[in-house]
Amino acid sequence: MKVLFLEIDAERRWATAALGPAFLAAFLRRHGHEAAPLRVTLDADMDDLAARVREAAPGLLGMSLTTRQWLRGRDVARALRARLDIPLVAGGLHPTFSADDVLRHPGFDYVCVGEGEEATLELVETLARDGEVRTPIANIQVRGGPPTTQRAPFEPIDALPWMARDLLAEEHGVVHMTTQRGCPFPCTYCAARMFNVLYEGQTYGRRRSHESVLAELEAIRAAGPLSYVIFLDDTFTIHHPWVKEFCRVYAERLRVPFSLHARADTVTPDLLRRLKDAGCHQITFGVESGSPRVRRDIMKRPISDERLLDAFRWSKDLGIITTDNYMLGLPGETREDLEQTLALHERLQPDDFGYFVFYPYPGTDLFRTCVEGGYLPDDHLALPANHRTSILRLPDLTQEDIASFYDRFTAARARNLERKYGDATAAAIIAAEMKASAAVG
Ligand code: B12
Ligand code: SF4
Predict the structure, then answer these.
(1) Per-residue pLDDT tens over the stretch 173-216
(2) Domain 177-192+222-239+252-438 belongs to what topology?
(3) Tally of helices (H runs) and strands (E runs) in the chain
(4) pTM over 0.85
(5) CA pair distance 153, 397, nearest whole angstrom
(6) Which residues line ligand 1 (CB under 6 A)?
């Protein structure tokens, strides 16, 4: 059977398409099925899209969805169902934690809850054989059916085929890699960590062997240009023995510059030095808030200001570019907390940073807090994840408060960019980003 994976553009073209379908496509191809991507661009006309789908003649459509992609994905599924009769399975973080809601909408027949390789294969083979799902498939919830049971995470992780890179839309030899699945930390706003809860009693966290990671990168280099590697692991710097050995073999065999994501409390000067020597060019740290109270009590991320300042200083001293992210407008946060975030940002002086109005992702602890506190509007799943305007009605912060801090972060970013690139380029970057933001309302 052929599976056509629809990549839903919801605001802008990212440097990579969703990784999940690239894993699934590789797995399906290994088992003799066909898989292809189709990008649903922002200007896509639904009649044209339906014509292209018809021409590709898939037996099953797949859609990977984050919450940001959900509203557009919902509209695309409805439009396709009005024109075609091809079953559609959705997967990824949003459907995993909102399966009932997704399946209420026209055009969605199945939701993959959690890891998808074996489940999608079983769904494809069942549909190819029977034309429908008569007996339950673990991890696959059927429209109108009961919640699914969960199959064990795939083991051994090295036995998964490497991502099918034709689905990723990578350019210029810049490649995206994952060396592990899962993150052991308990951050209350994080959808990714909820996989640990979904797989409670089993081990979701698994890391590939060095040989598997290196062999994949060497194969990419042999097949074409390899200029930069972006490691997308949630926290690359966990389990130091693995990271140290990685640095040793990577420096020996590849030495291609790379980026990674880290938590400040998982790095040491020694580890950073090894990463730098192996080719680490840039690290993104999640700082999230400048208020120790918010980090400790609301986010369950009890990292001290000192530790954050140290991690940035150590990295900069080694010449590693630092980037960080902040969130604005969590339940329980106050204006004073947000002032502290701006103040800490001034002390950290990252090379660049992202700032996001808090949006509660289904499944997370803070989503529950918002529901229990009555902070979510009833139609929250029908509201876009806005950039500047919070969807929440919070007791300690108004939407205007949050928007005014968002504007102050925009001004801080403009100053940062001006220092680096001069006024004209900084203004152009900010204008382009504002335009992309406007696309989601
Ligand atoms: C890589 C990455 C990106 C990449 C690619 C996106 C992607 N979906 O892969 C880019 C850079 C584009 C990106 C951007 C953003 N991201 Co991001 N990203 C990640 C990250 C770090 C890793 C994803 C990964 O490794 N996937 C590896 C595969 C193997 O895992 P998987 O995606 O879960 O896929 C498996 C199953 O879910 C399932 N599956 C997945 N898709 C499908 C589809 C079908 C049809 C089926 C059957 C099964 C299935 O099978 C897969 C294989 O087992 C995750 C964190 C995480 N750990 O998930 C955040 C994460 C997905 N991102 C997140 C966010 C918030 C964003 C942004 C909004 C960031 C921002 N503030 O602007 C944007 C939105 C992007 C968009 N298009 O809407 C959130 C999403 C939360 C949510 N509920 O929506 C996450 C979970 C981070 C977090 N800690 O909360 N991101
Ligand atoms: S460290 Fe990052 S990925 Fe891990 S639980 Fe916290 S926010 Fe999520």
Answers:
(1) 999 999 999 999 999 999 999 999 999 999 999 999 999 999 99
(2) Transcription Regulator spoIIAA (3.30.750)
(3) 16, 14
(4) yes
(5) 41
(6) 10, 14, 16, 18-21, 23-24, 62-64, 66-69, 89-94, 96, 112, 115-117, 120, 178, 190-192, 232, 234, 356, 361
